[in-house]
Amino acid sequence: MQTVGHFTAAAIRELVPDAHHVTMSNLHAAGVRSSQDRLLHHLLDAAVRHGVLALEAPGRWRLTEEPTPEAMFSALLADFPGDAVMTVTYGTCGQHLASVLRGDTDPLELPFSDSDAMATRFYDGTPVTTRPILLARRLLEHSVAHWPQDRPLRILEVGAGTGATTAVLLPGLPPQRTHYSYTDVSPAFLTRAKSRFTAYDFIDYQVLDLDRGPTAQGFLRHRGGVECVARHHRPRGDPAPDRRPARRRRTSTRARKPQP
Ligand SMILES: C[S@@+](CC[C@H](N)C(=O)[O-])C[C@H]1O[C@@H](n2cnc3c(N)ncnc32)[C@H](O)[C@@H]1O
Asked: Domains, the chain, ranges and CATH?
């Protein structure tokens, strides 16, 4: 969190280089989107807790020292080499924080910006992502165990991305009666996934944009199947994240009861 505090202070210095004090109004005047206020307040709290910003009065802050996020980032990498993937991913986001706050950079794009390597390693191998994936696998195994033997098992994965969830789910599926639809809004992921999962011949790869409704795009027309929504996504028009039910934000598998 200390590194987060320093990334925040560095972003503030970049946004309002000459200001003696920082307020929400001068951050907004520097281009920070009001839609980012909630995130910004959390970040400012972290920076105050770690002493790189001081709260002078309610809603008014001042830098107390020169922020050194890059040095802290390097020290984290050296001290915790086992968490390097997570550190590099978060560090990449921290380096672009000012641009994210201004709305010039989509934070979801950052892990995918150079090649898919950082995103693949992040989704495949960090505790943040592996715990929900393992939970998804247990839920799916439960559904499969209770699925009638004579019915095909249709699985739709939405926002499958780099395939971290898929890689854990596939080995637990009976190949003879499984039909797996690997979908994402971005066709680039589908091309990479085809190479990654060549060993599984029961997968089809298709574009699905959840914002446009699955049935309109030819999905979920069969009765009975398992939908696996493995992404953090807010469909357009949904309430803000803080007002969403928590289950919308988690990896989930939902079994749809087979119909006669
Ligand atoms: C959190 S990542 C998914 C992580 C995934 N489990 C993996 O292993 O890479 C979110 C995914 O949702 C996809 N996505 C974003 N907007 C979408 C939309 N409107 N419809 C479907 N997928 C979308 C992104 O392309 C990205 O692959």
From this structure: 2-113 (1.10.10), 130-256 (3.40.1380.20)
